[in-house]
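Can't paste images in this forum, so I'm doing it all in text. The chain is below; anyone willing to post the predicted structure tokens underneath?
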Amino acid sequence: MTGSDAAFEFLFGCPKNMIHRSVILTPFGPANRFAGGKGKGIPFKGRLYSGVNVENGGNAYTVVKCPIGASPAGDCVLFLGAAGCEKLVYSASCGGLDPSSIGEVIICRSAFPGGGFSDYYQSGADITKILTGYVPLEASCGILEEAWLKAKTLEEGGDVFRKGDIFSIGSLAAETTENMFHIREEGFIGIDMELAAVYQSARVSDMAAVGILYVSDLPSKRPFWDELSIQEKQKLENAAQMTEQLARMVISAR
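Text version of the structure:
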């Protein structure tokens, strides 16, 4: 199906040849925020995905907005691969696990495929079975190091950036205290729902990919429904801006 021109145009609202070789993928906010201050964008909108093609200072890339969840994100990357995408930055937020804190930005070395929704609720479901039943999916080495080096050039970043491993959980409701304890014990410093699917699809598509995620909440201490302090809100806004800036820097690098 990913090779079908008709399917691509139905889902994305544009032909394959409109997609640039370099793509920023995000599930949040308007896609044109990644265009930068002087960027010019040509928008597109399909049944499932939308976005903008950006021309910014001689750099051309596509920004795609996808729905939240592993399947829509993973399928999106597969379709982008069929359209000729070669380089992808996934930019989003995640929950933080010790030692991460709200307002930090994680450059993701790997993402662990933490099972599907049913794995958490079927008879005999156990987080330890999930943790021993899969292997981590790694970011592409070259683009990972590129992201890390460019993060160091953002002076305002300070100690905000860190490398780490992410656990992609199959159910938001499964972010229980017990599950978070076991996941944290395995050394994961962030939790999301999409990145493992993104890395898996990028590998299948022979695409260089890296995830850049800012920590928006702490499931074990400060869940997403808790009211943030003024200082935390400022840190969060700063982290979101730096995540977007770093994504543009990495995707524009030659």
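The first strand starts at residue 22 and ends at 26. The chain has a mean pLDDT of 93.
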